[in-house]
């Protein structure tokens, strides 16, 4: 509780209304040579059904926390980042430049490959992240999911959401680090992604799922996740969508 209260006071690093993490499951920023002495970032490790710390659910960066966000991606060896926002319209701190340009943020240089892959429900970019202190460079695939209307509690359809979850999972299979998910408060969009992803994994492996239990499990890390009935019902809709899409799931038990 003391850590939670302390983290709440870091008003320059938390967006108003954001879900404040405790220290128990929060990544510490430790990259050698950092100019900022604080290890705080509004982010938490999230387990998938099969893999511990499969995800990091992060608050979308503020203009003053972009370097922290890039530090997180670099130090955790994250090769996939999923965004649920437009950086301009949602007033998110810019952490990658326009296509084929260079963005310098503190200790980092970020470049964007000129080839941008635009799909029906997301945009995929390849970023190059260079840590200027030692010259190391890491490649990052950035997915911007575009089928979640601004102001809505849920995506446009379960089918498109399931599609992007599967696509991200395929991209990250060879990744040695967690998948970074980020949204304005660190919980609303990220929490729904983690919940549905875990339900789909459990269906595949055990042929039985409990939406209630999975929501509770996700809420132990992100208290504001699945905070309304619309999102709760959407979880069920995704499960039913998956069952209806294949005979493989015809005997799945849903609670």
TrEMBL record:
Ranges where the record places region Disordered: 1-29
Matches recorded under Pfam families: Y_phosphatase
Record bears the keyword Hydrolase: yes
Reaction catalysed by this enzyme: O-phospho-L-tyrosyl-[protein] + H2O = L-tyrosyl-[protein] + phosphate
Name recorded for this polypeptide: protein-tyrosine-phosphatase
Record field: compositional bias (Polar residues): 1-12
Every Tyrosine specific protein phosphatases domain range: 159-233
Keywords: Hydrolase, Protein phosphatase
EC number: 3.1.3.48
Domain Tyrosine-protein phosphatase: 12-242
Root EC class: hydrolase
Organism: Dreissena polymorpha (Zebra mussel)
Gene Ontology terms for molecular function: protein tyrosine phosphatase activity
Superkingdom of the organism of origin: Eukaryota
């Amino acid at each position: 509780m003391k850590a939670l209260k302390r983290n709440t006071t870091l008003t320059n690093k938390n967006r108003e209304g954001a879900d404040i993490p405790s220290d128990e499951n929060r990544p510490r920023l430790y990259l050698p040579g950092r100019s900022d002495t604080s290890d705080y970032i509004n982010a938490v490790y999230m387990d998938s059904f099969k893999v511990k710390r499969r995800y990091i659910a992060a608050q979308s960066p503020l203009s003053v926390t972009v370097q922290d966000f890039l530090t997180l991606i670099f130090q955790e060896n994250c090769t996939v980042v999923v965004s649920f926002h437009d950086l301009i319209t949602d007033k998110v701190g810019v952490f990658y430049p326009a296509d084929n340009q260079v963005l310098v943020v503190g200790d980092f240089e970020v470049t964007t490959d000129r080839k941008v892959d635009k799909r029906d429900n997301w945009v995929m970019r390849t970023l190059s992240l260079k840590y200027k202190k030692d010259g190391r460079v890491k490649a990052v695939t950035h997915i911007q999911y575009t089928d979640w209307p601004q102001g809505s509690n849920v995506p446009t359809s379960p089918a498109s959401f399931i599609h992007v979850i599967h696509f991200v999972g395929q991209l990250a299979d060879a990744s040695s680090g967690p998948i970074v998910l980020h949204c304005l408060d660190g919980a609303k969009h990220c929490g729904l992604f983690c919940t549905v992803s875990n339900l789909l994994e459990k269906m595949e492996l055990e042929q039985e799922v409990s939406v209630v239990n999975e929501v509770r499990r996700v809420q132990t890390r992100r208290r504001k996740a699945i905070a309304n009935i619309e999102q709760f019902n959407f979880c069920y809709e995704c499960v039913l969508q998956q069952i209806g899409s294949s005979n493989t799931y015809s005997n799945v038990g849903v609670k």
